[in-house]
Amino acid sequence: MTEQIEPGFETAGFETAGFQTDVQQLPGWTHVYSGKVRDLYVPSDESITAEMGQDCVLVVASDRISAYDYVLSSEIPDKGRILTQLSLWWFDQLDVEHHVLASTAAKGVPAEVEGRAMICKRLEMFPVECIARGYLTGSGLEEYRETGEVCGIPLPAGLVDGSRLEHAIFTPSAKAEVGEHDENITYDHVVAMLGDDIAARLKELTLKIYTRAEEIARERGIILADTKVEFGLDTVTGIITLGDEVLTPDSSRFWDAASYQPGKAQPSYDKQYVRDWLTSPDSGWDRASDTPPPALPAEVVRRTRERYIEAFEKLTGRTFEG
Question: How far is 64 from 76, CA to CA, in rounded Å?
């Protein structure tokens, strides 16, 4: 769930991630960074910045998929379009300032990447992964089993994998370098990093987004167990702004409400199917080794794509057109 935001959203310098990828050349734009999933471009034509009214970046979602800190050699067809279209749908549902300026060719997105790209405000990103949890699972469950807490927040005894929490909690993490794991931190740590006012606003916005999205998903038969969001400062307006993607299967845990059963791992609408295959005997891969994972079989690719599409269609009520 904790897909790392690419540094290309920041106003600091760009850098190259630790893997190779084919980069599409786009007229009017210069490629500056490739992350695990997204490729970022800045305008090479001053008229683009003038038309947008402020400094901007082009965010192009690829079909790449990552697992266990590796970018796999296999891709999931249409994944970039699904993630982009789902994020755009969610941005429209949330009463929160966000970074999207344009998402169609008519508004300036290059036709070559229309449907999987957004022109976005360039933000000064905060170095914090803002995570809201309404259910206990994943790294939160591991921490709870060891300490009875998650990110310094005490939780009741007797909770199990998949337990619903009485109230959603804000459990931030510190962003790690590409290839490293993010580190869970306490709210007090966020305050020390960013100050009382910004920390309080990030917590407020994160829980607001989760609460609204959880209601919407539940109406559609899906449980939103947790989600990761990213915020940055719009230096033009001074407003804390929602950036990156939002509420996709790459940044959230979505479960089928009809099959939900606490006490065990829940089937999810994300890349868990890929993770499960990689750690199964069928893959022949040793996760503890330094060897990159093998290519995915066609069946795993097909079923993973189906899960992404199912999540998109259930949540939006739209038919995905690849």
Answer: 7
Give residue 124's region: left, alpha or beta (phi > 0; psi -120 to 50). Answer: beta
Name the percent of the chain lying above pLDDT 70: 91
- Collapsed DSSP state (helix, strand, coil) of residue 281: coil
Which residues, at least 6 apart from 122, have a Cβ–Cβ distance to it below 8 Å? Answer: 9, 11, 54, 55, 56, 57
pLDDT digit string, tens, across residues 288-310: 998 999 999 999 999 999 999 99
**Is 180 a residue whose pLDDT tops 90?**
no
Tell me the CA distances in angstroms from 180 to 2, 81, 119, 163, 198, one per residue in order. 11, 27, 28, 28, 26
The pLDDT tens digits of the residues spanning 61-83 come to 999 999 988 999 999 999 999 99
Q: Do residues 83 and 270 make contact, with C-beta atoms less than 8 angstroms apart?
A: no
| Domains of the chain in sequence order | 7-122 (3.30.200.20), 125-259 (3.30.470.20)
247 backbone φψ class: left, alpha, beta (φ>0; ψ -120 to 50): left
User: CA-CA distance, 38 to 21, in Å (whole number)?
Assistant: 10
Handedness of CA 252, 256, 257, 261 (dihedral sign): negative
Average pLDDT of the segment spanning 54-59: 94
Q: What is the pTM of this model?
A: 0.90
Q: What are phi and psi of 24, to 5 degrees?
A: -80, 135
